[in-house]
Amino acid sequence: MTITTDPPNRAWGTKTTPGEAGQAALSETDEVSWGDPSRTGTAFDFRTDAITTPTLRQLAAIGRATLNDDVFGEDQTTTALERQMAATCGREAAAFAVSGTMANQLALGALCQQRPYGVLADASAHVVGFEAGGLASLSGATMQPVRPANGLHLTVGDLEVHARVDEEGGEGELGLPWTACPTRVVSLENTAHGNVIPLAELRAIREWTAQRGVLVHIDGARVWDAVASGRAGTLAEIAACADVLTLSFSKGIGAPIGAVVVGSGAVIRRIKRLRQSIGGGVRKTGLLAAAVREAVLENFGPGDVDVGGVFSVTHDMAAAVTRMWTDRGGKLLRPSETNMAWLDLASAGVTAETLNGMGMRNGILIAAPRIVLHHQICAKALVSLEQVFDDILVRRKVEGADGPGAFGLRSKGCVQNI
Ligand SMILES: *Cc1c(COP(=O)(O)O)cnc(C)c1O
Fold it and tell me: Which segments carry the region annotation Disordered (predicted)?
């Protein structure tokens, strides 16, 4: 009888054939990217704040993580993160999720309990346009997208016009017709594309919805920026306005992966079961939770207000970018309140493709019309951006040949400005 064994040379990192595996092993040792945004290119990347790369301190924290099973609920690092986030947000419980998208879907799924249900959200919200229709396929809910009248974020005024709610007593003079799909949940984004929902407005929405039996979800992928702006309240004050709040750690917080949902004990228990049902219960989450805990400390701080200072630097950069544009006569699509600048390209007579292409030739990546600032953008990238603005608004240069692209600058020794 022949005993089949694995073929030799199957160990990790062993070069079997001169090919990809060997290349990967080489680049792992020769080109370590941890903690170096100029090497990874994020120092020159204005497309999104999700692009940041984790720091060496996060790597060290991963080394200290517990390695127990979170499907069993036994991993201490993960549990500590959940407890810490629940406490910081002044809520009973929290559930870790591997992405903000999953966290949003779980949060909304847990609120959609009594069919038929509609979820009212800003038409440009992440849950409407960037979650692959998950609300329909996972929760069977109807999305009720609304364009905010103020062009920035939803308000009570928008709800008064668009929410489909039964008045007191249900079907009656003022009630909804039986044919309507009632709004059971309002989903808000804070920040909404960089714009802050002021705390007073959020509280008014909470009161309006509570009076009508409508639940509130807040997508707080960038809630850190909202808090750091000083106009949105603390994490706890914001969380108090929602049945569930999702927070992402892979935007301004700068962790590699991860999000949490906070809410009541009952809603979090429902969320953990839903999470398991879509394969989101994962095992050694301590690795991720450790990096997240370190990233929160690095960039925001341990409490419910920003003491890290990193967000205010990022917001100052966005204000500087906005001035670079408007001082040259450019107009904005939205006011810059946190870490984004929204350029009005039409009034500058330039297309997004042209602007992005000019960025590439100047060694920076842009996804116009949105310029997103994050803590790994370097001073040199801002200078390149200013040159692009000059070319568009001052020298009015048009398309030329393609240059070396964003990564051509990697080796030129960009110094991180923070
Ligand atoms: C990025 C983002 C998400 C999703 O977060 P991921 O962790 O990238 O899945 C959700 N909502 C908003 C508003 C976002 O910007």
Answer: 1-37
